[in-house]
Design a protein that fits this description.
Elements (H helix, E strand, L loop, with lengths): L1 H16 L4 E3 L3 E8 L2 E4 L6 E4 L2 E8 L1 H8 L1
Antiparallel strand pairs: 1-2, 2-5, 3-4
Amino acid sequence: ACVVLAALRQVIIEALKEDEAVKFASLGTFKVVKRKATNRRDPKTREIRSVPAKIKPKFSFSKIAEDEVIA
């Protein structure tokens, strides 16, 4: 089971690196979200800092999976 999960993890990571979404029927979707560079205020020092642009992996549950968890 560990070998299968490791292989699945590797396939997902490779697809996300190529900016492709990975869908699992009735489970959800892995995708990459691109965030723009912004300026944010540090709440402690009140100093404005720039936050660089970055990409983040994201998983969204399907409607079917959400309904099964809630039920």
